[in-house]
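so im writing up the methods section and need the TATA-box binding record in one place, dumping it here so i stop losing it
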Amino acid sequence: MDWKRLVSGTLFFFILFLSVGSSSPPDDMEQLIDAFRRAGGRSETAVLHHGNRTRNPLPREEVGDLARRLSRELGLKPARRTESRHGHRWTATGKWGRNLTVRLNVINDRADLRKNRPYISVSLTGRGHPDRKWSHLRNRLEKVLAANGISPQIQFSIQGSGPMAGSNPEEAVRRVLKRLNAREIEGMRTDRTTSISAFSPALRGGLETKGGTMNVQVAARMDRSGKRMILTLGTPIITIEY
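--- predicted struct ---
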């Protein structure tokens, strides 16, 4: 055999092996989007949500500085402060592209204390079907949070019209859980709604509940007309009203 052909053939398979071995598995967000689509859902809204307190207590006078810095680094309008009996709140909004709205809330719920760990909430809400750029959006958000002493706690939710032909809320939820190889931990069922908290070994992390560890929530309900099913998925929990 021609040694040049042998070497080139060996090199080809070596490169192929490296490309396969180095390909990363789909992350939680990608798996949820895929399960939603394969279950017959048509996406209308997607939300990335962070909610957590700062790692360390901040002096009362520095909370406003943090709010202004976050709004600037996230590319939002200047943060506005309001006061109530619940404490001080800074709010800022903006756009990351045509169909993506960003909202920031920084809440000092113990303004009477000299130091406190303020609560930081950031929501990215998009319309239509989330595409590959959402992974980059999440990375951007995580970097800004981490750089400001905030441990990212990112939750992803997707919502839209569910399958209608020969289906009901229970069947729609079961179809999604099967796609994720998830088992039910807790559930809530009414005449029009099925909502199940479950655990999937394919997804990371989890929350401890009375029934055990959960890392995905799936809900389906029929609207009042009975002609439209609304399907919602979230990991580890749903952060959209359903």
